[in-house]
Design a protein that fits this description.
With 256 residues, this protein is α+β, with helices and mostly antiparallel strands. 29% of the residues lie in helices and 22% in strands. The protein is built from eight helices and eleven strands. The chain has helices at 51-58, 62-80, 100-107, 113-120, 175-183, 191-200, 206-211, 237-243; strands at residues 2-6, 9-17, 28-29, 46-47, 85-86, 123-125, 129-136, 146-153, 167-173, 222-226, 229-233. The strands form three sheets. Strands 1, 2, 3, 7, 8 and 9 form a six-stranded mixed sheet that branches. The chain has a three-stranded mixed sheet with strand order 4-6-5, with no helix packed on it. A two-stranded antiparallel ribbon has the order 10-11. It is globular and about 60 Å long. The two termini are 30 Å apart.
C-alpha cells in the first residue's frame, strides 16, 4: 500500500485490474504480486530491520520473511515504478526513469531483484516499509493466496504510474474517496482491500501510519450460512455486505 500526504489527508495509490486477469479481474486493488523463487535467496545490500524482525511480525521463517520484503520492493517497482532503494543505506533514488529497461526485465523475469540492485549499486531500504496485515484466500476459491500487506510512503521525487500490463487505470485517492466510490458502485473492492482502506482512514498523516503499532493476526474469511444464504464471514463483514452495491460484480478466481 503506497501512501502520500494530500490536502485532505493521506492518499493511497490504487489500480483497477484489467478484465482479463485470472484473479480479481476488474477489481480496484493495491499494487502487488507473488514471491519469486529468487526473492528468498537474494544476496543484496540491505538497510533497515533484518529478516528476523520481519519474521517475528509476520510469524514466518527468516528466509520467508526476506522473500516477502524483497517481493514487496520488486513488485512495487514493477507495477508502479516506485523503487524503495537508494545508493546508500540512508538515501533513496529520486527518479526511476533511468531504470525503465531494468523494470521491464524484472517484470518479464529476465532479471532478478538481486541482479538489478547489484548492477546499479543500490541498497534495499527495508526501513521504508512497515508490516500491516495478513489475509488468506477462502478455501472456496480455486486460486488461493497467503497475502501479506505492507505500507510505504512514496519517496520524495518519485512518481507512481500505471505502466504495467495488469492495470487498466490508476489513481491516488483518500481512503474516504475510495470507499465512497465503492459504495456508489464505481469501483469494486474485495474484502481485504476494503478492510485496509478502512484501517488507513483512521490516520491523519503518513507519519501516523508509519508510526502505528500494528498487531498482525491472519484473517481467512469462511463461508457461513446466514438466513439461508451463504456469505463470507470476516471481521466487520456485516458492514461490508450492508454497503456492497452489487455483489454480482465481485470476481474471485477464474475457474478453469
Amino acid at each position: 500500500m503506497l501512501v502520500r500526504d494530500g490536502a485532505a489527508g493521506p492518499e493511497i495509490f490504487l489500480q483497477r485490474r484489467v478484465g482479463a486477469m485470472a484473479f480479481a479481474a476488474g477489481m480496484t486493488v493495491f499494487p502487488g504480486g507473488g514471491v519469486d523463487p529468487a526473492d528468498g535467496t537474494a544476496d543484496i545490500e540491505w538497510a533497515g530491520p533484518e529478516p528476523a524482525w520481519w519474521a517475528e511480525r509476520f510469524d514466518v521463517t527468516e528466509p520467508r520473511a526476506k522473500a516477502l520484503v524483497c517481493a514487496a520492493v520488486r513488485e512495487t517497482f514493477e507495477e508502479c515504478g516506485v523503487l524503495l532503494a537508494g545508493p546508500t543505506a540512508d538515501s533513496v533514488v529520486c527518479d526511476t526513469a533511468g531504470y525503465r529497461e531494468a523494470r521491464g526485465k524484472l517484470e518479464r523475469r529476465e532479471l532478478s531483484l538481486a541482479g538489478f540492485l547489484a548492477a546499479e549499486r543500490l541498497v534495499l531500504r527495508a526501513d521504508l516499509l512497515r508490516p500491516w496485515a495478513n489475509w488468506i484466500t477462502p478455501v472456496v476459491e480455486p486460486r488461493r493466496y497467503d497475502t501479506r500487506f505492507f505500507v510505504a510512503v512514496l519517496p520524495e521525487g518519485q512518481a507512481a504510474d500505471g505502466a504495467t500490463s495488469e492495470a487498466a487505470e490508476v489513481q491516488w485517492r483518500t481512503p474516504a474517496e475510495a470507499l465512497d466510490r465503492w459504495r456508489a458502485g464505481t469501483d469494486i473492492l474485495l474484502p481485504p482491500t476494503w478492510a485496509q482502506l478502512r484501517a488507513l482512514s483512521e490516520f491523519a498523516s503518513t507519519a501516523e501510519i508509519l508510526a502505528a503499532d500494528v498487531v498482525i493476526e491472519p484473517i481467512m474469511p469462511v463461508l457461513d450460512d446466514v438466513a439461508g444464504q451463504q456469505k463470507l464471514s470476516f471481521p466487520d463483514g456485516q458492514r461490508y455486505f450492508a454497503d456492497l452495491p452489487d455483489a454480482s460484480r465481485l470476481k474471485g478466481s477464474v475457474r478453469r
